[in-house]
Amino acid sequence: MKKAIVTGISGQDGSYLSRLLIDKGYEVHGTIRRSSSINTSRIDDIIAEHESSGRLNLHYSDLLDSSSLSNLITNIQPDEIYNLAAQSHVAVSFKNPIFTTQTGTLGSITLLESVRYLDKEVKFYQASSSEMYGGDFIGSLNEESPFNPKSPYAASKVFAHNVTKLYRETYNLFAVNGILFNHESPLRGETFVTRKITKAVGRIAMGIQSKLTLGNLDASRDWGFAGDYVQAMYLMMQYKNPDDWVVATGETYTVKEFAEKAFSAVNLNWEDYVTTSEKYFRPNEVGYLLGDPSKARKNLKWKPEVSFDQLVQKMVEHDINQAKKEATLLKESLISPTWENPVVN
Ligand code: NAP
Ligand code: G4F
Q1: Which pLDDT band holds residue 332 (cuts at 50, 70, 90)?
Q2: Is 196 part of a structural domain of the chain?
Q3: Is the CB of 180 under 6 A from ligand 1?
């Protein structure tokens, strides 16, 4: 049985990827951080199903605690490592630049250094990002396009990307960069714009929220479905040689277009509910992202299965169900009302 370590297993991608690896027959070891409130909600069902058999194992670790990472690798002797953990919110990276940089950079080099000294070949996946491109070029971006990071988050991802490539070339490691464009799902964090919108749509439809405040409506993103993208991660790690891969849909839409589609799914006009505030604009913005996934399509035989319209529908449906549950609790006075979703980003 192959063993995989997944850092950041409690995040959106960690949840989809661990499910996929378990289905493929892997023994999965995921890292979680200690927090004052329990933070495993995205993987609770996987824990319930697979922890007792040892197919899913959780370990306390932090990217800043190098001993926790290297001990894990020594003890588990994994076949594959997926480094997904990061402070992944771009706007927050301007407010916590040092923490974002430390987590974004130290984790990758610590893991690569540990892998380098093991006696077996361990494949390494680094979660690179389309944010690294910077968003000035109005055209499609591929593995050769230049990076021009616009945030501490993106700058830290450029470091991790480069060091992964460096270790591949210098020490002949099977070290892979997945340059993933934005990917979303019902499990997306609620402060990213797509989920912030679909959550508000659900709550507005149920009468428990009255408006939605956003930032730059003109930003354009190549949005895919997270379930499809973790499939690409897995395929990269099975390919004959390690490489850098762009994973994207090849279509881009503005935040305004996403909002329009999400509100129209419940027969509402987005303009009646959406306002903007300077609070949600960033000090430096990535305006336009469009990926060219030709290389992954050709060599990995990967393509996205969920379209933009299906993605929006999936997220809205999920958030309507969530809002119905919230409305019931409110009716029974088991929780207090929050008229606008109390998100901060
Ligand atoms: P996410 O939902 O924000 O999950 C991030 C994970 O990292 C969580 O499990 C989080 O733990 C963990 N983490 C954060 N700081 C940590 C630290 N110091 N030590 C250990 N763990 C830490 O992100 P995601 O959307 O799944 O994305 C996965 C990876 O892909 C990230 O590296 C992200 O930057 C990158 N990426 C994402 C996208 C996208 O569109 N989703 C696109 C390109 C690249 P807690 O649950 O305790 O917070
Ligand atoms: O949803 P976002 O916060 O995602 P962003 O900044 O593109 O980053 C995500 O995708 C990256 C891949 O390109 C990942 F590497 C990263 O970890 C993360 O998963 O913002 C998308 C766009 C931005 O242009 C932002 O300015 O939406 C704009 N936006 C407009 N109003 C907003 C809001 N973003 C957020 N979070 N909240 C708003 O109210």
Answers
A1: confident
A2: no
A3: yes
